[in-house]
Amino acid sequence: MLTGAALVLASCGGGAITPETTPPPGGGSTELPPVTTPAEQSGRIPGQITPFTAGQASSVRPEELSESAAVSGSGLFDLALPGATTMTTTYADLLFNATDIFGSCENVITTAPDSLRLYPIASLKTDTGQTLTANASGSTTAKNWWFANQDASYTFQGDCLGLGTVNATFNFKLGWNVLDVTYSGASTAYAQVAAPTSPVEWRVGGLGSQRLNNALEPWKNSAAYRARHRN
């Protein structure tokens, strides 16, 4: 039997009645929250080749990357490094597992996400074949630029060829991270620092030529690096 209200609706020619939507418990929204990604730290290397003579070099670039920067008549350059998308696609095969960064090591204790991949730059090549390192004359500290494919905390302890004892803690951000690396002979220390905004001194025949066993670039002692430079 139709109720009085139903009879009134029927007599007025009303259509189907749409049921009300019941909100989720607690009155919350049914929309999913937006997906957020960490901000990327862009990378650039501002440099001054020291000492510099006219005609010594017209460009610089990292050893394995195709990006380069022109060198001015006074030895200045400003090298823009590739972004995260390029590093994780075009250069994906060059990225290292976190422990490979320190090369050949013993007594290793480390914590890092399995998915963490890194790419370090500790030297640049000129178009005339010279190797440059970012350290002032007489200093045992050199600047490095390390790419990380994600935000990650990473600790490493070990005794490594060319480095001595390493006991380091990193808090990487997605993109390029700048480090001061200090060599004392028996040990090597790593400190994350702010990205430089003024030209950094890059020297020919500096710290890089004085360190044995690839100490300035210990990843060159890793099986991963040697495999891709076998030929």
Descriptive account of the structure:
With 231 residues, the chain is mainly β. It has one domain (40-228). The protein has four helices and 15 strands. The protein has helices at 4-11, 84-88, 207-210, 223-228, and strands at 44-49, 59-61, 69-70, 76-80, 96-97, 105-111, 117-121, 123-126, 131-133, 141-148, 152-160, 164-172, 175-183, 187-193, 200-204. It has an eight-stranded mixed β-sheet with strand order 5-7-10-13-14-12-11-6, with no helix packed on it. It starts with a helix and ends with a helix. Residues 1-19 have low confidence and may be disordered.
Put the structure in a nutshell.
By secondary structure, the chain is mostly beta strands. It contains four helices and 15 strands. It has one domain (40-228).
Shape: globular
End-to-end distance, in Å?
A: 91 Å
Query: Main beta sheet, described?
Result: 8 strands, mixed
Radius of gyration: 28 Å
Number of strands: 15
Biased composition (Polar residues): 50-59
Region (Disordered): 15-60
